[in-house]
Fold this sequence. Notes:
Oligomer: single chain
Number of strands: 0
CATH architecture: Up-down Bundle
CATH superfamily: MFS general substrate transporter like domains
Structural class: mainly alpha
Distance between the termini: 40 Å
Number of domains: 1
CATH topology: Growth Hormone, Chain: A
Helix content: over 70%
Largest sheet: none
Radius of gyration: 21 Å
Amino acid sequence: MTRLAIMIGVAAATVGIIYGYDSSNIGGALIYLTAEFRLDAAGQGLLATTVVVGEIAGALFGGALANRIGRKPTMVLVASTFTLFSLLSGIAPSLEFLIAARFLLGLTIGVSVVVVPVFVAESAPTRSRGAFLVLYQVATVSGIVLGYLIAMALAPTGSWRWMLGLAAVPGIIITVLLLRLPDTARWYIMKGRTAEARKALTQIEGDAIDIDAEIETITAGFATAHTSGWLDLLRPPFLRATLFVVGLGFFVQATGINAIVYYSPSIFKSMGYTDHVTQLGLSALVQVAGLIAVFIALLVIDRMGRRPVLLIGIGTMIAANALLVGVFLVGGGTFDGALTVLGFIGLILFTAGFTFGFGSLVWVYAGEAMPAHLRALGATVMLTADLVANVIVGLVFPSLLQSAGGAGTFAIFGVIAVLAFGFVTWLAPETKGRPLEDIGRFWENGGSWTAKR
Length: 453
């Protein structure tokens, strides 16, 4: 693997740090924002999910923007504007200003979650494409852990401004890294810039492949596609693919992971932990377990395949939900030592199962599930569905936890996880080791790698 290939995988995937950091630092900041702005449960949900509403708007045009100006320029734009809006969040003079800044922050993140998987999938060598895509989740979880640790370090000062504003630091670093990368060969070919595509492939692949043959294969894939409009997503043979990416995107968030990320401190409070530093420290420890799980996924994704990893992860989430339901039923609002430990284990299993399965595979399938001419648009609809579910969960979770209690809340998440398991078993393709140009044939054959007679 060439040095540039490694740099592309690392630099592009680390955009996930800014996504993860923003997801968790609001969890720490909410402790102090709630007191300063006198927020009730609904107000907390609004502030936490405002950024996600912006992400939906960004995701809706992220694919089209990446097709128009390029994958790399779009990511540079994302990282630089993330830096600006993070700073504005930290200096917000009022709640209204903060909500507006977080909406704009979400706009940039929404574009990033669409374009990064496409960029990585189109740049990575086929033999290690899955691992490169999982790197994005490694970076995302690392960002989540970093957000909680910084919030914990700042907890004695109660400074939510520093918690939010420090997100600008990784934004600056990532912008500098991205400026040194080329765009993808597939985007160059889509724009008729064959010489630049050949140069990019040579730099990334070295002598590992026949560059001329690869150029011909990629060019032929675009030549037979004819169109790449939104309506193509709703027509056979790719309607089945659209159903898969939309359903997968929705289930990723509907199973409740961001309820854990946003509100871990509140969950630990309901378990009897009243100290803010302890709440944030335990929340960070839960995410460390998730980080370990995603590293395991990174090691096995190109060996075991996509479907087994995803199904093992969802199965672990189902077991974790069952454990958490039992803990809250037995505890009845009062937790002793044993129940607290079991509840903590349940949250660790839930998070580890998610990052191993859904968390890793959503980025893999965002980059792999669609043929070349629909890849960016497919990633757009997948991640828009993901973010819509994120908004729903973020808005209802605080009130749901109050009204249904922990047992009822995790029972609902458990039922959704069971439905997700069945959905993945039914529709998810196994794309391990398949060239990107072969993906379209799977859907053209009605969800099979071999043509039906």
